């Protein structure tokens, strides 16, 4: 009986540690994406998406890493700053779901505008790194 209880405690502890590690890795990817945007290196943002990723928003569907690269490059010369606010990350083995709010500021017709959107990201492991496989966003 002691062995079973010990194994159950160990399993719960290990699961909690693994989920925390996954969350930390994904939050690090968020910070890297922000840094790429904030330094104007927009093509680098696509590095955080899988080869077959899909981005879906209002009247927008972008499929494949090459098209996602072009999507982000469309903001070249217009960047101000970007902050990703995490609400939650839930891990399911090699898949994780992240919900949050994106606060992106950019130039539009010589004025700084802010785009605030709610996002849901489906992260999967690709080449031993957490990458976005599905990016869904809706304006707030």
Automatic annotation (TrEMBL):
Q: Where is the DUF4440 domain?
A: 26-132
Q: Which InterPro entries match?
A: DUF4440, NTF2-like_dom_sf
Q: Which controlled-vocabulary keywords does the entry list? A: Isomerase, Signal
The signal sequence is 1-19
Q: One Pfam family name from the record?
A: DUF4440
Which GO terms fall under molecular function for this chain's record? isomerase activity
Q: Gene3D superfamilies from the entry?
A: 3.10.450.50
Top-rank taxon, per record: Bacteria
Please give the name of this protein.
Ketosteroid isomerase-like protein
Q: Which organism is it from?
A: Marinirhabdus gelatinilytica
